[in-house]
Design a protein that fits this description.
Pfam families: Baculo_FP_2nd. The chain is of the alpha+beta class and 304 residues long. It is built from eight helices and seven strands; from the N terminus they run ααααβαββαβαβββα.
Amino acid sequence: MNMEARSKWECDRCKNSGERSKRIKNKGDESDSDDSITSEDTGRLDESVKYAASQKEPQMVGNKNLLSVINKLSDKIDKMHSSELTMSQKMDKIDGLVNDLADVKKSIIFMSEQFDSFCTELKTMRESMKQVSEENRQLKEITAVLKVKVDFLEQNTKRGDVVIDGIPETINENCLQIVQELSKVINVDVAPISAFRICLNQDDKHRKILANLGSESARIAFVASAKKMSELKANSLIVSWPDHRICVNENLTQFRRELLRKTKLKAKEKNIKFVWVRNFNIYTRKQENEKVVQVRSEDDLLKL
């Protein structure tokens, strides 16, 4: 191969790449020629712009978007306004609650002052009640002592009296003579001063005979002899009288009669076997051979 042929010789790869480069260059030239804007193209573009500007549809689309935005803003403004009203109402309610709390505070202060005043008055009343209670206790003690003294004086006036129960009451009877006949039956020589019918209790079916025997010794002997005779009955004096049992007791005062009645009730409750009166005093004994307990007042009944 000569020098000229050697300088022009190319391998197959170089030939192919060269052809490819040429083809690309030719295409670029063609595209450049196609992309070039001519006056005809410019006129056509102006007509398109004028046509688009003459159309009203884009303007309508913009108005719709604007109205939508305005409506949204209006809704937000309304919500903000309503929230402002709600906050205002809440603030009004809070102000009302504050006023109510102030009134409640005033009421509490007033009630506290009233309570303090009440406590002071109550303390004063308690002290007064305590003093009155102490005075009442002392008066009760004095009354009890005076009651005992009065009862003793009253009972002392009855030291010669006896009460006879179980003798039938008849018309134009002579109570003094009946007592004299009774003294003969029980073998006691007495000279009664007076005798008459009395009603000591409302429950009595018939009146009893109260006799004044003149002395304490006569009364003691008369009562003791009558109690020894367990078969002392009314028909022992007069045969025509019924066989009612005759009981002879001492003439107790009202206080001692009531105390004797309560003592008998207490004896039934506590199973106390013996209750009796001797020389105007009340005695009890629970069982035989046990100690004797004297009852002077209702306080002694609590100890039985």
